[in-house]
Amino acid sequence: MEYEKVRILVVEDDPQIRNFMMYCLHNEDFPCECAACGKQALSMLISEPIDLMLLDLGLPDMDGMDMIRHVREWSQLPIIVVSARDQDKEKAAALDGGADDYITKPFSAMELMARIRAALRHRKQDTGTKKMSFEVRGLKIDYVKRIVSLNGQAIHVTPMEYSMLVLLSQNAGKVLTTQMLLKTIWGSSYGTDTQALRALMAGLRRKIETSPADPSYIFTEIGVGYRMADE
């Protein structure tokens, strides 16, 4: 199996949800462990080989946001938040704090497994050789030649649009928050003004999307940020 050596830690205090996630993982042949609180999870992360963590934010002994900060001090393992907190600011805070993805309860087994596979693909790309290009659904970004093409036809993009495409494509499948995009593309001094970001995204979509209102490549996560398609 492709993921037979991947070990997943489920950090969830609700027995029903924890058992459901464990069932989903076992059903897909993912080896997994579970923890019902933050302290137990941290101990397991230190002592056992864990490749990905599914994390509930509402733990009985510590807030999940603190858990993310603790882990990010020494590890870059993928963290997928699974939480009932559905406010946009909560999602953005978790992603900005170091989480790789965010799933809102309730969720389906199909969604859970798709998010896990996406996170593992991204981890494999990060640890493998540096990619020379990115391609999805006919959209190709040649990092070496700095050429963007759609179905074999070159597309003219501005330097700022190219930077945005590279950033999104190198994190395909992950939600990049508005604040993270502003800081990376324009610099930390740009503040929180999202007007320029929205204008840049609108112009980029007009060039690569058949229907900008119903995108195929760059998706809006309302109130949080943007995500590049990942096949």
Quickly list its features:
cytoplasm; identical protein binding; phosphorelay response regulator activity; five-stranded parallel beta sheet; about 230 residues; Rossmann fold; OmpR/PhoB-type_DNA-bd; transcription regulation; four-stranded antiparallel beta sheet; 8 helices
Characterization of the model:
This is Response regulator. It is a single chain. Helix content is about 40%, strand content about 20%. The model has no long low-confidence stretch (mean pLDDT about 90). The protein has two domains: about 10-125, Response regulator (Rossmann fold, 3-Layer(aba) Sandwich); about 135-230, Orthogonal Bundle (Arc Repressor Mutant, subunit A). The chain contains eight helices and twelve strands. It has helices at about 15-25, 40-45, 65-70, 90-95, 110-125, 160-170, 180-185, 195-210, and strands at about 10, 30-35, 50-55, 80-85, 100-105, 135, 140, 145-150, 155, 175, 220, 225-230. The strands form three sheets. It has a five-stranded parallel β-sheet with strand order 2-1-3-4-5, with helices on both faces. Strands 6-7-8-9 form a four-stranded antiparallel β-sheet, with helices on one face. The chain has about 230 residues and is an alpha/beta fold.
